[in-house]
Design brief:
The complex is a heterodimer. Chain A is α+β, with helices and mostly antiparallel strands. Chain A has a six-stranded mixed sheet with strand order 2-1-6-3-4-5. Chain A has a six-stranded mixed sheet with strand order 8-7-12-9-10-11. A three-stranded antiparallel sheet of chain A has the order 13-14-15. Chain B contains two helices and five strands. In chain B, strands 2-1-5-3-4 form a five-stranded mixed sheet. The chains are: A alpha+beta, B alpha+beta. Chains A and B meet through helix 9, helix 10, helix 11 and helix 12 of A and helix 1, strand 3, strand 4 and strand 5 of B.
């Protein structure tokens, strides 16, 4: 057997129901054809989580499709953690992993990414992937230590704890003399309560946030995973000398102007820019500018708040901005100072989207989401929908169970009530909390009254902080990405924020541009590089192919093969959704986006019609080589 | 080119709005510059460096080009080419935005 460089060559498969485990080999040809991360994860999802028989979305009833959301919480839906060939190499930003499952929010592929030390330990202790199947009879902690033997431990004592407290408790429980601490992935109360947009937290608050992987983990009664591997298990790379030289050069470039924004301000710098360009979704996408944008802008927060930068393991950029949380008036002095990670998406979703212009309230809400273990984008999205629905008289406004909520009611801009509502959602407490814990799409279907028109979601996933009517290439990307409204699996906004296109109009080039941006993201997400590094490459495809050769020793792997490989990954992802009942009408945008022109900002009066969107979608399918109905040939996808 | 484009060599007053690190380096939200109607990106960069030398290294390169990670926009609508010899096509009353590139979050 040929030596395998860069990979372990197997996945550790653990069945929580029986406690059985095994190592399943992953053939070298599969590793080369899927690379790692999201790509390999999609292949594993087909292998361990495909339907018993392929479903035809066009003939499935709506109720049958809705049932598929619930079956994502059944024991046979696998939860898969996937590393990459770059993990363990020490390359900057490469300590990342993918979390794959079928989403209880969308019914389709859920392909999250997170990062830091856990990635390194997963690869050492579990191989190229950890596949978790089944449901434990009792709440449990999955502990995999240096001997790579999974131990399923009771976790009743951890139930109800926040993600932060869970991680601390597990580390303390498994402390072992002078040995390094375990690394932990865990859920908070939201995952335990099967909130459909619950996240999985690791390494002090990083999140695999979108699409509800935390709910799948909760459905398995798996509160936490603790991993500690041995450095002796690190796979060797084929050309360490060249890789070390390249790593030094890339680290140097990663500290240049292309990443200065992330290093100094972080992504929160987007607020003032988006507001000026009329792309800042505000009050449930009813506006594209926010009157209090300045107060919550990255520039002002940087000057007025205690802010520290934090790095993932092996990262030179340090984009994370850690902000001190100010206690509410009357709370008294906290036992210990609390902090929150503040990214643009959290800031937008818990600020402008819900009309909150008080930075302290936003920061407290971000902290609360992380404690509960819920995705901040979906949390803000579902709350914004609820507020507008209450304003229209379709929801009772005083239905929050805690004091501030019942006093303030459900209104835009009422930060304390919104934080209380987040608590209700994360614990499925009360009528409103339970309704909103299922996400915007299901909540709107239950309430009716036309409220789906302002349910700002695609395929069930709440929209990120980019206004598609004034970013029309991204509009196409949001409509077509397999996991729903996601700004990370497509970077189509790159074209909109450039002279390449007119962001306020459409043309026949957008299909090709969206495909290229999605493929670029798939390459980053499979190798796995951090997206914030992307402008530090002089030629991304050539450099990435060269790095892959240095790591794997596959000397004939070139940029052409890399491009072909990531296009194949897009086919595999689409095939997964197709097998789980995707239909053409899933590739669309919320009705509000397609019927209401923007009322304010520099793009006032600009809308997006169904005709414009459908034209771009047809061009996208053609550029992908799919049929006119958007279906991939499964034989091609699996070739 | 905008409707009121002046003759080449005629000066126009242009407001340059600053975002991200540009705002933090300059410690103001905007600058007003007098530029030739036929000014290029390099001409603008030169004026910006004169107004705020701290731009060099993050917002502008030492050679006077727009740095990687920054983009120019006119009036909140059209994004402009970043090449040093690209014409800005300015008219009286135009506003230029000096913006960090967008990504993720």
């Amino acid at each position: 057997m040929d030596t395998l460089f860069g990979y372990r060559g197997f996945a550790l498969v653990v069945d929580l129901a029986s406690g059985d485990y095994r190592q399943d080999p992953i053939p070298a040809r599969v590793l080369r054809a899927t690379i790692g991360g999201i790509g390999l994860g999609t292949w594993l999802l087909h292998r361990y989580g495909g339907p018993a028989s392929d479903l035809d979305g066009e003939t499935l009833t709506d109720s049958a499709r809705r049932h598929l959301l619930d079956t994502a919480l059944e024991p046979d839906n696998p939860l898969i953690f996937v590393t990459s060939p770059l993990v363990g190499t020490g390359l900057t930003t490469s300590s990342k992993f993918a979390v794959m499952t079928r989403s209880p929010l969308t019914g389709f592929i859920a392909d999250g990414l997170s990062s830091s030390h856990l990635a390194v330990e997963l690869k050492r202790a579990c191989g190229d992937a950890l596949v978790i199947t089944g449901r434990a009879p009792e709440p449990c902690l999955l502990h995999i230590d240096i001997d790579s033997t999974p131990r399923i431990r009771p976790a009743g004592h951890l139930m109800g704890l926040s993600t932060m407290d869970t991680e601390l408790a597990v580390k303390a429980q498994l402390a072992d003399g002078n040995r390094k601490p375990v690394r932990v992935a865990c859920i908070g109360p939201a995952g335990e309560n099967l909130v459909r947009f619950a996240s999985i937290a690791n390494d002090g608050g990083r999140q695999a946030g979108r699409c509800g992987p935390g709910a799948v983990m909760g459905s398995k009664r798996l509160k936490a995973i603790a991993v500690r591997g041995s450095a002796e298990a690190d796979p060797t790379v084929a050309d360490p000398k060249s890789l070390r030289r390249y790593a030094r050069d890339l680290s140097r470039r990663s500290l240049g102007p292309a990443t200065a924004k992330y290093r100094e301000l972080g992504t929160i710098a987007n607020v003032s820019v988006f507001n000026r360009l009329g792309t800042l979704p505000t009050r449930n996408f009813q506006q594209s500018t926010f009157a209090d944008a300045e107060a919550v802008s990255g520039e002002v927060l940087h000057q007025t708040k205690q802010m520290q930068s934090a790095h993932c393991a092996n990262c030179t950029i340090g984009c994370e901005k850690i902000v001190a949380v100010s206690p509410k008036d009357g709370d008294g002095k906290p036992e210990k100072p609390a902090t929150a990670r503040l990214e643009y998406e959290s800031l937008f979703a818990l600020g402008p989207l819900v009309g909150v212009g008080d930075p302290d309230a936003i920061i407290r809400a971000a902290r609360r989401c992380d404690e509960l273990g819920i995705d901040t984008i979906s949390a803000g999205g579902v709350v914004a929908w609820a507020i507008e629905t209450a304003e229209r008289g379709l929801l009772p406004s005083g239905n929050i169970t805690t004091s501030a909520g019942s006093e303030e009611g459900l209104k835009f801009g009422k930060g304390d009530a919104i934080i209380d509502l987040l608590d209700d959602i994360g614990r499925r407490r009360g009528y409103l909390g339970n309704l909103l814990a299922d996400g915007t799409r299901l909540a709107a279907e239950k309430i009716g009254g036309g409220s789906s028109d302002w349910a700002m979601q695609v395929k069930g996933l709440e929209m990120p902080g980019y206004e598609p009517r004034s970013l029309k290439t991204l509009a196409l990307g949001l409509a077509t990405t397999p996991r729903g409204a996601c700004h990370n699996r497509t970077s189509a906004y790159d074209a909109d924020f450039s002279p390449e296109v007119d962001r306020l109009t459409v043309d026949e080039r957008r299909g090709r541009i969206a495909v290229d941006s999605e493929d670029f993201a798939a390459a980053l997400d499979s190798l796995i590089w951090c997206k914030f590094l992307r402008r530090a490459f002089s030629d991304f495809w050539e450099e990435s192919a060269a790095v892959y050769r240095m790591v794997t020793g596959w000397k004939d792997f070139d940029a052409v093969e890399l491009r072909k490989t990531v296009a194949g990954i897009a086919d595999l992802k689409k095939a997964y959704n197709q097998r789980w009942g995707w239909r053409r009408s899933d590739d669309t945008l919320p009705p509000r986006t397609l019927t209401e022109p923007l009322p304010d900002g520099v793009a006032a009066g600009i809308g997006l019609t169904v005709h414009e969107l459908d034209g771009m979608i047809a061009d996208y399918y053609a550029a992908r080589g799919w049929d006119a109905g958007g279906r991939v040939d499964l034989a091609v996808a699996f070739s | 080119m905008t409707a009121n484009a002046p003759m080449a060599n005629a000066s126009v007053l242009v407001k340059v709005e600053l975002f991200g690190l540009a705002r933090m380096r300059a410690r103001v939200n905007a600058l007003t510059l007098s530029l030739d109607g036929a000014a290029t990106v390099a001409d603008l960069a030169r004026e910006l460096i004169q107004a705020c030398p701290d731009f060099v290294g993050t917002v502008l390169s030492e050679s006077g080009a727009i740095a990687d990670g920054y983009v120019l926009n006119r009036n909140g609508l059209a994004f402009l080419p970043a090449e040093p010899d690209a014409l800005l096509q300015l008219a009286e009353g135009d506003t230029l935005l000096l913006l960090p590139n967008q990504a993720g979050g």
